[in-house]
From TrEMBL:
GO MF, one example: homoserine dehydrogenase activity
Residues given in the record as L-homoserine binding sites: 190
Record key words, sorted: Amino-acid biosynthesis, Methionine biosynthesis, NADP, Oxidoreductase, Threonine biosynthesis
Species the sequence originates in: Methylacidiphilum caldifontis
Binding site for NADPH: 105
Pathway entry: Amino-acid biosynthesis; L-methionine biosynthesis via de novo pathway; L-homoserine from L-aspartate: step 3/3; Amino-acid biosynthesis; L-threonine biosynthesis; L-threonine from L-aspartate: step 3/5
The protein, known as: Homoserine dehydrogenase
Length: 436
């Protein structure tokens, strides 16, 4: 049987599990790919740590260039994270004729277009199934299984760390800080966990999903991104009483006949009976609406060493199975983008949850309703939860019907200037996955 030689760069949460699972599944993978897939070299930061993990000394190096320059290697797997060094590694590897596998969504979000185009000019493939939704074969589904479709929507939960934190906060089991600490211990969080909780990691994944579905790479700065750091347990509780749960969603929608794509990441209220509401812990789930297939749901483990390693190994098997391809059919648009662009957030239409802190006196609700009414924004329900002390004002929660974001924000600004208001309005979008 022929061999397929791989160089692995990075032996952390994911890299170690790739190495381990490749050894334990060696025969199975050989049967499935028709090649002996073998890791011949591993670049690490600490040789001592790698030896303790059971890696034989002969294959270790601390210099990734040894891997990129090794003529005996067919492919490299980049699993170190970050942007600048991985960019150098991957561009060098492609230029040296190697195929590439990476799980690095941050790198792809910022440099996907250049990397895809470089891979195309060197007639080499770059595969990155692990970069979005961990072990779920989501990118393969978009590129292969659903290849016949035009996509109307791709939306869901794509960050395991945030989903884990929100699940624990909703169940009242852990505080934000404790849940984040645990997500780090479990290997879900990024080395810099602010990428997770700020929503940036989800935005990076949304950029990749957008590229594969709509054949254009949006600029990361154009993706409206808001994280979960300031989600108040009070809002989780009030939303729960109204029949909603909080989820950090990446939402990508393309309205028919429009050249603009809605692409945004933010904490969102979902009805408790929506299928995504029951996705808990480190699970991810993404709904894809294709024009032929209709709705599809992809669900599974979105992070962690083993689920992510499963996706990396799947990419390696694909490379080993089909060697010497002249181009990467998964990135067939590498040199030619569509003319789509990102829809400004002010133009989106959504329902909203608005929490105000007001002085409890007659006429308050009427004044707020008047401002909303002038902007043609309808109220769907109003709740004033009872509180024990009135000295700091009382909460007033207003759910509104579909409204254009810019009109709703204008109304909120006017409301914030009312004399009986204490503090800034708290606003969350409410999603029902409607696409015209
Ligand atoms: N942990 C997860 O569940 C998932 C991670 N990813 C992505 O996979 C990549 C790796 O993630 P993790 O394994 O969790 O990170 P990690 O921080 O556990 O591992 C990275 C490893 O790379 C090593 N490293 C850093 N610079 C190096 C260099 N120049 N040469 C050799 N080794 C170097 C570090 O010492 C560390 O052991 C990241 O891009 C991450 O975003 C993607 C999906 C899921
Ligand atoms: N930090 C990420 C890891 C997978 O992409 C997450 O929590 O989802
Ligand atoms: Na995946």
């Amino acid at each position: 049987m022929k061999s397929f030689h791989v160089g692995l760069i990075g032996l952390g949460n994911v890299g170690y599990r790739v190495w381990h699972n490749l050894l334990t599944h060696r025969e199975l993978l050989a049967k499935k790919s028709g090649k002996e897939i073998e890791i011949k070299k591993i670049a690490v930061r600490s040789v001592e740590k790698a030896l303790k993990q059971g890696v034989p000394p002969g294959i270790l190096t601390t210099d990734w260039k040894e891997i990129v320059n090794d003529p005996d290697l067919d492919a490299i797997v980049e699993l170190i994270g970050g942007i600048d060094v991985p960019y150098e590694i991957i561009t060098e590897a492609l230029k040296k004729g190697k195929e590439v596998v990476t799980a690095n969504k941050a790198l792809l979000a910022f440099h996907g277009q250049q990397i895809a185009s470089l891979a195309s000019s060197y007639k080499r493939r770059i595969l990155f199934e692990a970069s979005v939704a961990g072990g779920i074969p989501l990118l393969q589904a978009i590129q292969d299984g659903l290849v016949a479709n035009r996509f109307l929507m791709i939306s869901g939960i794509v960050n395991a760390t945030c989903n884990y934190i929100l699940t624990e906060m909703t169940n009242g089991r852990m505080s934000y800080a404790d849940a984040l600490k645990k997500a780090k211990e479990l290997g879900y969080a990024e080395a810099d966990e602010t990428l997770d909780v700020s929503g940036e990691d989800s935005a990076h994944k949304a950029a990749i999903l957008c590229a594969l579905s709509y054949r254009f790479w949006p600029k990361v700065e154009e993706i409206y991104t808001s994280g979960i750091q300031s989600v108040d347990p009070f809002d989780i509780q009030y939303a729960g009483e109204l029949g909603y749960v909080f989820k950090l969603l990446a939402i990508i929608k393309k309205h028919q006949d429009s050249k603009e794509v809605e692409i945004r990441v933010h904490p969102t209220l979902l009805r408790k009976d929506h299928i995504l509401s029951s996705v808990s812990g480190s699970f991810n789930a993404v709904i894809i609406k294709g024009d032929i297939v209709g709705d599809q749901l992809f669900y599974g483990r979105g992070a962690g060493g083993d689920p992510t390693a499963s996706a990396v190994l799947s990419d390696l098997v694909e490379l080993a199975r089909y060697p010497h391809m002249e181009y990467n059919p998964r990135l067939f648009f590498a040199d030619e983008q569509t003319e789509y662009k990102v829809m400004p957030i002010s133009e989106i239409i959504s329902r909203y949850y608005l929490r105000l802190n007001v002085v409890d006196k007659p006429g308050v609700l009427a004044a707020i309703a008047e401002i909303l009414g002038k902007k043609n924004i309808g109220i769907s329900s109003v709740v004033q939860p009872e509180v024990s002390s009135f000295s700091q004002g009382v909460p007033l929660i207003i759910m509104v019907h579909d409204a254009k974001e810019k009109y709703f924000k204008e109304a909120c600004f006017e409301i914030s200037r009312l004399p009986f208001l204490k503090g800034e309005p708290i606003v969350y979008r409410v999603e029902d996955f409607h696409v015209q």
